[in-house]
UniProtKB/TrEMBL annotation:
Superkingdom of the organism of origin: Archaea
Pfam families xref list: Fer4_15
Protein name, entry field: Ferredoxin
Gene3D superfamilies named in the record: 3.30.70.20
Length: 83
């Protein structure tokens, strides 16, 4: 099922532990040793986080990556935020 959602990555909180990479290959190591999100539509986010929009069937992967992050640097936002 295709869903529209956004991944918000707080790179200030990211600690380079890379638990997210093995859950979702859209999280990749950047040249600064932290993680970045690839493949979606980049958007502005006021607080300096990386905000990337997707419209695909990989919401579950993104949520797994978010759950795996020990510092809570990843948020997955959907239209209906009921979870
Ligand atoms: S799991 Fe969290 S802290 Fe680790 S690299 Fe991914 S976003 Fe950064």
């Amino acid at each position: 099922m295709t869903t529209e959602y956004q991944i918000r990555l707080d790179r200030d909180a990211c600690d380079g532990i890379f638990a997210c990479l093995v859950r979702d290959d859209r999280f990749v190591e950047a040249s600064d040793g932290l993680v970045t999100v690839e493949g979606g539509r980049a958007e502005q986010d006021g607080d300096g986080s990386q905000l990337v929009s997707f419209n695909d069937d990989r919401l579950a992967d993104a949520r797994q990556a978010a759950r795996s992050c020990p510092v809570g640097a990843i948020d997955v936002l959907t239209e209906v935020d009921d979870e």
